[in-house]
Amino acid sequence: MSQHRYVLRYFDIQGLCETLRLLLTASGVDWTEEHPEWPKEKTNQPMGHLPVLVVSNADGKPELVLSETLVIERYIAREYGLLPADNLAAARQEQLRDQLHDVGSTHIEYMHSTGERSAELVTKFEQDATCLVSVHVAALRHNGNNGHYFGDTLSYVDLAAYAFFKFFSNAGPRSLKSKIGLLDYTRIPEVSKLMAAVEASSSLEPYFTAEKVNGPRLATRFK
Amino acid sequence: MASYIFRYFNVAGFGETTRLLLTAAKVDWSEENPEWPLEKPNQPFGRLPVLIEHSADGSPDLVITESGTIERYVARTYGFLPADPLNAALQEQLRDRLNDVVLAFFAHKSVSEGERQSMHDKFEELLDKVVAVHSELLRKNGNNGHLFGTELSFADINTYAFLRMFLINPMPSLEHSPQLVKAKLTPEIAKLAVTVEADPLLEAFVSKKGGLAEYVLHK
């Protein structure tokens, strides 16, 4: 394991980053968060957007800046053992996480859409969310319905699913109200069990109990 | 040795990187283009692409889905992505940002008339950004036609697939964007395209599907 220190640079919102905040906490690494002035700092980011992860050595000297949310997630997950080194085992987690991301993205697109495209996205969301629930319930059952997707310890996809289902349990005013009930985890026993297991995880205690987690950001609304 | 079936639509789309990787890996592979949406319920996540891996020893087939996961699985298994998580991430982030450019183009088409110009400007701004990022990486790597190191990599293949999508037989829905992409190509990116295409590992693909050298070299 490397002796890196990390700064997550993002906005002071849940947005796309709760899975990453959970990963950084669960991994036990030294990390903080910063919220740059925006759009002033846009041109200073390697790919022109956020989030980025500044990777520094043990003395805090920046070595490089990683971009792209899912890439950053997988880097931390792999580096700190939350995603297996074995290619196939990792792919099994990654595809489930990618599916969560797809449905999340469809919902985001819906929130910004109008007219005919909106109607198309309602149908797409309904189909894809229904499929997602069926696939994820099957995966949790296949693993013995023990509150984890794989094995009996916390892993990457557990965290991604937690962030996903929490998001949809308190999605905001522009959300697809008629359909997000499909993702109500209180009605899905296997997912409820997962949510409880994540919340009970000792490596996530700082995330759930601290008022401020590693920097200026108040702990998330996921409480 | 394992063999593969790649199940997708008969388009470049989000499948070309995987086709190129399977070719470069020199594995035995074939493609299925299922009837759609008839075959939708038969896919593990109700979507394409899907990759099926037949093992040589008769153990059950492995089925993997989600285009990014499929690409990374093939790339890692056959050595086109480094095992080291940080160096792999440096390649993977380029792929995701290129995807954003493609999605931004299609997004601008699905908005109302009034928003279309500003969405198109966003697409073009993003395109300029990825061209600049790629060109700088290529220069830093000695302008040898590779984004990292001296051999064909995941990042090289993905960038090449992106260029193919816009420059060779582009879908009608891409409209004027092929000319736009071509006009923005830097010498470094043109060199990557030519270098990747000339790699012996991709010979089977290029000879069957044609190359883009003529598109990048003649402006």
TrEMBL record, chain A:
CDD domains assigned: GST_N_Sigma_like
Domain GST N-terminal: 4-84
PROSITE patterns given in the database record: GST_NTER
GO MF term list: glutathione transferase activity
Gene3D superfamilies attached to this UniProt entry: 1.20.1050.10, Glutaredoxin (3.40.30.10)
GO biological process: glutathione metabolic process
Protein name: GST N-terminal domain-containing protein
UniProtKB/TrEMBL annotation, chain B:
All copies of domain GST N-terminal, residue ranges: 2-82
InterPro entries: Glutathione-S-Trfase_C-like, Glutathione-S-Trfase_C_sf, Glutathione_S-Trfase, Glutathione_S-Trfase_N, GST_C, GST_superfamily, Thioredoxin-like_sf
Domain GST C-terminal: 84-219
One GO molecular-function entry: glutathione transferase activity
Source superkingdom: Eukaryota
SUPFAM superfamilies found in the cross-reference section: GST C-terminal domain-like (SSF47616), Thioredoxin-like (SSF52833)
GO BP term (any one): glutathione metabolic process
Protein name: Glutathione S-transferase
